[in-house]
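Hi support team,

I'm opening this ticket because the web form for multi-chain structure prediction keeps timing out on my end. I have pasted the exact lines I submitted so you can reproduce it. The total is 468 residues across two entries, so I didn't expect it to be a heavy job. Is there a limit I'm missing, or should I split the entries? Thanks in advance, R.K.
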Amino acid sequence: MIIGLAQHLKQDFGIDFHEQSLLDEAFTHASYVNEHPKQNLKYYERIEFLGDAVMQLCVSEYLFKRYPGMPEGKLSRLRAAMVCEDSFSKFAKECHFDEYIRLGKGEEKSDARQRPSLLCDIFESFIGALYLDQGKDEVVSFISKVVFPKLDLGWFDHFFDHKTALQEYLQQDGECQIDYKLVAQEGPDNERRYRMAVFANGEELGQGTGYSKKAGEQAAAAQALKKFGQAATK
Amino acid sequence: MIIGLAQHLKQDFGIDFHEQSLLDEAFTHASYVNEHPKQNLKYYERIEFLGDAVMQLCVSEYLFKRYPGMPEGKLSRLRAAMVCEDSFSKFAKECHFDEYIRLGKGEEKSDARQRPSLLCDIFESFIGALYLDQGKDEVVSFISKVVFPKLDLGWFDHFFDHKTALQEYLQQDGECQIDYKLVAQEGPDNERRYRMAVFANGEELGQGTGYSKKAGEQAAAAQALKKFGQAATK
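Hello R.K., no limit was hit. The queue was backed up. Here is the completed structure from your submission:
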């Protein structure tokens, strides 16, 4: 039994696991199993396989319902930004899951406990265990606290394509000529920033700054969308 | 409303859709929407996005529970063989979904109705619509009739690695020397077939034939597993 894990889940997330063995499996790395051959332990990979699919569905369903007008291509890109190693490893850290992983000594020495790929795996295997133990509604309740609020905190904003959103908004009633122009370059060579402006049929709609011309264009488009009361995500 | 579809689902699968509009959306291609701009129609891509994730989870959960001893790598490969364009397009045909797709005239002319990628999309969007209309249990009930029995019919057998399964079986109690040898070549040059035999510590366990040496080895390993009462999948 992994000491403290069940209590941590109860205290911090109100989750009361029925099958402790599922929780143990979800937090046990193969290297630990190999070092304890007589204990007949299981490692997390099979539960992680399931948890990955559970996350895909829960996030897909949430996005599908939250953004009823968003085309499939954007939904897919947004899901990819949320369901990925980078995001999951951050969620795992935030939930302090790293403190409860059972690792072999060699892995421990090579600092595997802080490796994003392992943290991502553990987040998925925890989700798989929670799904098996308590069903999908309980998973949705958990990720409604840990994952979905990050959308409103702007974690995935870099993923939205403001230029395309602006183009779609401006051209919904017919053709419209959109141009981006460099307004100024700021800062020293190694930290050069580009201020870009966006124009629709010659009229300036907004300006924005970025560390590349492209990033500046995105910032300018976001600024223009704000002016029209349109966010790229909505 | 797509004529005959609701009745077909009721008669052949006992499925009674509550929201007809979901069904219409799931079977409508973008080309049809474009040709009927005044009807304010929706096309299937958003529902397909959801249906894809629903299938991933339902198949993952089924495999996870059916094969409790199967390692994650094999589970993933088997899932990939089941959740793919080739399989889904066949399921769609078998369910006669191709007869109900609403297509634009240009697409109809280019024979899109029989294109595997479209059939696959429609199978996924149907699953998405069924999930939204009736929930996951009803989806599992449907694919228990249409998808899961194909496992027992051998549809995905080509995906199992009999050589690895044989090796795992033979080496479970210690080392064992496994060799494959060419026994005979049969047929003309352009249809050459290779008969291979498999040996464990010098004892012949089985023979098999294939259009490559590798395929012959797989067939020989499958034959040996049969002898031991072991299928590669179990």
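A quick check on our side: The mean pLDDT of chain A is 91. Let us know if the file doesn't open in your viewer.
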